[in-house]
Specification:
This protein is mainly α and about 220 residues long. The protein is built from ten helices and eight strands. A two-stranded antiparallel sheet has the order 1-2. A two-stranded antiparallel sheet has the order 3-4. The protein has a two-stranded antiparallel ribbon with strand order 5-6. A hairpin with a 2-residue loop joins β7 and β8. α5 packs antiparallel against α6, α8 crosses α10 and α9 packs across α10. It starts with a strand and ends in a 6-residue tail after the last helix.
Length: about 220
Amino acid sequence: MYAEAAAARLLRVPPSTLRRWLAVTDGRQRRSDPSGSRAGPPGRRILDWAEFVEAAYLREHRQAHRVSMSGLPIFLALLRDQFGVPHPIADRRVFTDGRAVVWEVQAAASLHPRWWLVVTTGDRLTLTPQAAAFHRRVGWAGDSAASYRPDPSPDSPVRIRPDVRFGRPAIGGVSTESIAEHQAAGTDPETIAEMYALTPADVAWALAYESGTRPGR
């Protein structure tokens, strides 16, 4: 579970932006709870793991295509009904054997083409480049999202897992934040690697992630 502020920090978006996205995509919850709050004081949101993964997809898509989210609430509501899960973007079937359903739902929701997950290629249904990239960033356990790679680089070993370091980005069970704190305190990367039984490359990726750069920059 993530507090809204913590989720926004991990997604690297302002809390107000995340709150606005959730207001659009989580219409069913908000109709039953006008305050927009599932727990805690009014105005405060708690995100579960699947909702966090779905929000990560929205972040990636909004960065690539700043288009209207019109149609998205209907699209997600229809997907919920079809797949029987509250957050379908965190369900592997949407990206694999459920593509025919997604194709039909996109049309039914009048979804903007840049939000599509599936397109036709010849006589086949294939994922859009954005959907395929997101599918690769998620680690799947059966049909459920088990991990998420927050770094867009496929080479990055940084992962977010709900059962590791309280859902914070980590490498080999060590949070990237802890690694960065050691460096800030003056510990050299080689020593940090030895401390945590990591490779120097792991430490470099952790530090790069925390600084928003790439190893070697």
